[in-house]
Design brief:
Chains A, B: GO terms for molecular function: heme binding; metal ion binding; nitric-oxide synthase activity. Chains A, B: Residues 68-75 form the Nitric oxide synthase (NOS) domain. The structure is a homodimer. Chain A is an alpha+beta fold. Chain A has helices at residues 4-24, 31-45, 52-64, 89-104, 143-151, 235-242, 252-258, 270-288, 296-312, 321-324; strands at 79-83, 112-116, 127-128, 166-169, 177-179, 188-190, 205-207, 211-212, 215-219, 222-224, 229-230, 233-234, 293-294, 350-353. Helix content of chain A is 36%, strand content 13%. In chain A, helix 1 runs antiparallel to helix 2 (31-45). Chains A and B meet through helix 6 and helix 8 of A and helix 6 and helix 8 of B. The structure holds protoporphyrin IX containing FE (2 copies). One protoporphyrin IX containing FE is lined by residues 63, 66, 68-71, 74, 78, 111, 113, 229, 231-232, 234, 237, 294, 299, 323, 351 of chain B. The site of one protoporphyrin IX containing FE has 19 residues of chain B, from loops.
Chain lengths: 357, 357
């Protein structure tokens, strides 16, 4: 059952989306007519269906609206895969793997989003339980997921950098269906250091494509809970956070030892130096095998170009300073030395976090 | 002339300060009695005078309230110099130099504040035009001050790291009186690098005491425009900002060259590496000559202790994330991985910026 109130708020959200689309894109349909059509659908079924143009536009604007994302310069180039007719978990898993192949693109990473069926009144859609399409079982960040999988009988998760199976949950309170990722869908980069041959012996690696899979895409009042999206990596995500954070792989002490740094005294700046070595290894290793990656200085400048370009179109660029500013040498990146329009939590279309089930 | 309205708001501010003091300090005077006394003074003169206990408490709380300051763990140890009877610029300058000597303390830096006469109704007090008691003429940040001094006939400002004279302005629209800082009041640290002997040839140096001199201290509705205060340096202020920022000394390219880094390609992380070398030189050089300085990892942990301690006293610690989190290796400092209570722009006592004259 949908209430009169939820229908009214859905209509309101739909109308404001349709009008925004028409305003930004002269090729869009007559908004009055489209609003009438949506109203009829909502009256009859409690919901409505986006045209594929609306879906594409909506997903791109959701990216443009992501206040935490430094990579928004290329929002218009997002490849939108319309997979709304898929609801069977086998199909969803299959297309997630296809997503990874398409995004990987032989190393020349492309931003892609795959949009599966939306929630319908009293019929929530399938969702992916994984935080990202590719996550490692021994990453402390995956502890709950790894434990869940093992409870369900997964035999893996004892080695290093083992990729978690994909968990597709077709309905709330149902156990997820699990799928091992095919090898050819997951490109990985072995980490080596340009000047220290011993680095390779640490046997570190990371995957090529960061694809967030647990956020809900909201467009015009419609919720797409299964809508994994990816960009390319900015090196610091791997070198300064995933591999370095004390509650992630916590590798600074290991790297410090390899480079002979004195880790007993903070004032040797051993942490800072180990970070530089680790980040250098990440950038160098991706580049060496031909996988797109951005350094934080370049990506910072691109973000400022993005702001300039958006402002020429009369649009603000809300941004979350503490997420935008890179975690390495922040004071020396182009994005540090200014404030931004504050994030607008009501802006839509949007990607939204949901509580972990 | 003071208006009824400005008197009412002064009284309101005074009363809330007096009550806060009484609540926090059982040794404080009976607040009801003190409020009546202040009311009588405001009725007669349009203002009132803090007791020296109120002044000390007020200055310390202003520090504790500074949402941008990572160094607040030691707020109770602030040395408060009561110099409210001084109004002649010669005396003010003399006591600013004494401040520096007392703060320097043979290298064992002590946090000190010197509080000169407050603004009175229709009689604004003297103020210092300098941003800090010690600033260099060739620091691009001082460009306006250097130009102003030269217009007024100052012959200096052509060398490197020349200390700007102190500018004491006794009344608005009056030209400031200028005073050269005595050599023994300004300790400076020549910068050397622990492993690279060539670093010393860059002939860099920095002064020992950061003493902010252009903020107004506000306590219970009374404004003290001349109230310079200092802590000790956190290394990144010098190594990652003052010497590194492109609009300050912009030394990363110079350091990169010294260390043979390839500055044509961002992906060599030459900026990040040069930053580490510069910061290491700063910490090492201060330590070598026995001048207190904090590294950003240690100061970050102290700030978290501060929060814990304040919470045990039932107090929040408003903090400005983008100022608190250090500009070097931010992701690997203890303060990065959380949010803080938002700054409260109405909190008093407080240090406030004022528009540059
Ligand atoms: C094209 C290259 C891209 C780069 C370099 C990039 C970079 C980043 C970075 C560094 C973060 C912060 C991550 C963190 O600290 O955990 C971020 C967050 C985010 N990005 Fe991007 N991004 C890219 C593409 C995309 C795309 C294609 C989308 C969506 C279509 C997107 C949406 C987001 C969102 C929603 C967040 C916030 C995630 C959260 O709240 O956990 N980004 N991005
Ligand atoms: C004891 C050692 C201290 C340390 C290590 C310290 C550290 C810092 C740092 C790193 C900043 C940011 C500076 C910037 O990025 O420009 C800051 C800001 C600030 N600190 Fe402290 N501080 C100390 C003592 C004090 C004292 C004694 C006071 C006042 C009594 C104070 C009041 C402030 C204020 C008001 C700001 C903000 C300045 C502005 O808005 O420009 N600090 N502090």
């Amino acid at each position: 059952m949908t209430t009169a109130r939820s229908r009214a708020s859905l209509l309101w959200a739909a109308e404001s989306f349709v009008r925004q689309f028409a305003q930004e894109d002269p090729g869009a349909r007559d908004p009055d007519e489209r609003v009438r059509e949506i109203a009829a659908s909502v009256a009859a079924f409690g919901t409505y269906t986006h045209t594929s143009e609306e879906l594409t536009y909506g997903a791109r604007i959701a990216w443009r609206n992501s206040a935490r994302c430094i990579g928004r310069l290329y929002w218009q180039s997002l490849i939108v895969r319309d997979l709304r007719d898929l609801t069977h978990p086998d199909d969803i898993a299959y297309e997630c793997f296809e997503h990874l192949r398409m995004a990987t693109n032989g190393g020349k990473i492309r931003p892609v989003i795959s949009i599966f069926a939306p929630d319908r009144p009293n019929r929530p859609a399938a969702r992916l339980l994984n935080e990202q399409l590719v996550r490692y079982a021994d990453d402390p960040r995956s502890a709950r997921h790894t434990a869940l999988l093992q409870e369900m009988g997964w035999k893996g998760g004892h080695g290093r950098f083992e990729v978690l199976p994909l968990m597709v949950q077709v309905a709330p309170h149902r156990p997820p269906e699990c799928y091992e990722l095919p090898e050819d869908a997951v490109w990985e980069v072995p980490l080596v250091h340009p000047h220290h041959p011993g680095f390779a012996a640490l046997a570190l690696r990371w995957h090529a494509v960061p694809a967030v899979s647990d956020m809900t895409l909201e467009i015009g009042g419609i919720h797409y809970p299964a809508a994994p999206f990816n960009g390319w990596y900015m090196g610091t995500e791997i070198g300064s956070r995933n591999l370095a954070d004390a509650d992630r792989y916590d590798l600074l002490p290991v790297v410090a030892q390899l480079f002979g740094l004195d880790a007993r005294d903070e004032r040797t700046l051993w942490r800072d130096r180990a970070l530089v070595e680790l980040n250098l290894a990440v950038l160098h290793s991706f580049e060496r095998v031909g996988v797109t990656i951005a350094d934080h200085h370049t990506e910072s400048r691109r973000f400022l170009s993005h702001i300039q370009r958006e402002e020429r179109h009369g649009r603000k660029v809300p941004a979350d300073w503490s997420w935008i500013v890179p975690p390495l040498s922040s004071g020396s990146t182009a994005v540090f030395h200014r404030y931004y329009d504050p994030p607008d939590p009501l802006a839509t279309p949007a990607f939204r976090h949901r509580p972990m089930p």
